């Protein structure tokens, strides 16, 4: 906010600033859902929002000349720092794809599996269609914002991502000549770190890599949605709360990428699936369970939960147990916004006529089935502090003590690569680029990725 105020003051004296131009790729990216709220409008004057976010009533005595002067000043500000709108160069150009120290800016390999630690930090280029095909459940908001503003669907391969990739790779395929006791691996990991340090993007890249290796990945890009919205009912069988709308969506998302593989995996549990209330239709009369016929596959199990709303929650809970028994293919559970499963949901249970009790996330059947890391399955969760409602304690229930791994912001080498990439994508003007200037925005943002991208045009 201080930087914006200084820029406005400088522009009033004789300079000028800028508004970002929406990129061509913005039309290809599906916008994320936002929650709409209704606000009351103050009467008796036109409301104006200040830079501090407070609302004040505009003075009715100010005339058109003042409005025109203010508008002209802001137009001048928006003109100086406007992003380049010229067409980008060809995608692959060795003369332009130069990183810090003359090193290649992009990796020479097109797979996350073949990149070595010597190649980091470099960028890997994928198409938007490939990202959506590998992650049909949805892309992280930060990744989509990066693609939109840089006008390219490339991601930087960081050392911490390679450490995560190698950790899970060693679990499935241990190196030759190394005993299991000397092999240090973690089957359960919780990514924590500052806001905008790249946790969600690293998790999405890990899912992309695992699926390209043929793994079965249960990917949850928005864990917060499991505890918000839709209907909720108390389940009489276990005293937990069922959310059939979310359960059906969970099954549909899991089926998007894994349908062919699930058709080959047989069910190993044939106990009846308990039924609950359907979405807006109540309980099923005279029936409290549903049996899966012998010879059913996991695909048949999921289709049952999608077709019958009364069974959707029970199928999600059963699916968690079935996936832990799969041995034919490596199974990885990847959950973003994992911290939302340790706080209260938006649901409330009426206690008296005038009071309600907030329902904790652990009381929701689907969350209760997937939250725990006290098992031998491979599972990774990423905290999202942008969706957090409060700080969590260091020791979390149902999570091993050594599971939490701190994910750092950009270091100096990574910031140099990012700055040269922004120069390549014309977020920074060539004639104004220098090592001194990109280091200034690195230290000013303290390595925050989104802030560095926002500050890049001001070089």
From TrEMBL:
One of its GO terms (cellular component) is mitochondrial small ribosomal subunit. GO terms for molecular function: structural constituent of ribosome. Keywords: Mitochondrion, Ribonucleoprotein, Ribosomal protein, Transit peptide. InterPro entries: Ribosomal_mS29. It is found in: Mitochondrion. Residues 51-74 are annotated as: Disordered. Belongs to the mitochondrion-specific ribosomal protein mS29 family. This is Small ribosomal subunit protein mS29. It comes from Dioscorea zingiberensis.
């Amino acid at each position: 906010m201080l930087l914006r105020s200084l820029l406005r003051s400088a522009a009033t004296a004789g300079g000028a600033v800028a508004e970002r131009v929406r990129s061509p790729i913005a039309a290809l990216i599906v916008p994320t859902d936002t929650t709409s709220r209704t606000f009351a409008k103050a009467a008796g004057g036109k409301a104006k929002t200040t830079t501090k976010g407070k609302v004040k009533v505009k003075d009715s005595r100010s005339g058109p000349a003042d409005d025109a002067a203010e508008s002209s000043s802001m137009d001048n500000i928006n003109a100086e720092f406007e992003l380049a709108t010229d067409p980008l160069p060809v995608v692959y150009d060795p003369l332009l794809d130069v990183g810090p120290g003359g090193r290649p800016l992009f990796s020479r390999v097109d797979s996350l599996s073949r990149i070595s630690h010597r190649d980091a930090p470099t960028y890997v280029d994928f198409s938007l269609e490939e990202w959506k095909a590998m992650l049909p459940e949805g892309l992280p908001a930060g990744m989509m914002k990066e693609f939109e503003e840089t006008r390219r669907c490339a991601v930087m391969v960081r050392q911490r991502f390679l450490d995560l990739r190698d950790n899970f790779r060693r679990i499935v395929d241990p190196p030759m000549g190394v005993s299991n006791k000397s092999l240090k691996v973690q089957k359960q990991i919780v990514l924590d770190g500052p806001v905008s340090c790249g946790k969600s993007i690293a998790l999405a890249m890990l899912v992309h890599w695992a699926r390209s290796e043929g793994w079965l990945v249960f990917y949850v890009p928005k864990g917060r949605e499991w505890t918000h919205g839709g209907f909720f009912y108390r389940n009489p069988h276990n005293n937990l709360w069922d959310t059939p709308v979310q359960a059906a969506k969970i099954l549909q998302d899991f089926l998007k990428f894994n349908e062919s593989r699930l058709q080959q995996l047989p069910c190993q549990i044939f106990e009846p699936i308990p039924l609950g209330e359907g979405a807006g239709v109540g309980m099923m009369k005279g029936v409290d369970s549903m049996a899966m016929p012998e010879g059913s596959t996991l695909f048949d199990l999921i289709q049952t939960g999608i077709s019958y709303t009364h069974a959707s929650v029970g199928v999600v809970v059963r699916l968690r147990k079935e996936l832990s028994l799969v041995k034919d293919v490596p199974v990885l559970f990847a959950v973003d916004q994992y911290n939302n499963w340790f706080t209260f949901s938006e649901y409330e249970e009426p206690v008296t006529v005038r009071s309600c009790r907030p329902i904790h996330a652990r009381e929701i059947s689907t969350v209760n089935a997937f939250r725990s890391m006290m098992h031998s399955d491979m599972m990774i969760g990423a905290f999202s502090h942008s969706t957090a409602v409060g700080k969590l304690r260091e020791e979390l229930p149902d999570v091993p003590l050594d599971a939490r791994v701190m994910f750092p912001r950009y270091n100096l080498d990574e910031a140099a690569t990012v700055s040269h990439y922004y120069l390549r994508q014309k977020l920074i003007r060539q004639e104004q680029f220098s090592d001194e200037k990109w280091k200034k925005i690195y230290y000013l943002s303290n390595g925050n990725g989104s802030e560095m991208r926002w500050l890049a045009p001001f070089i």
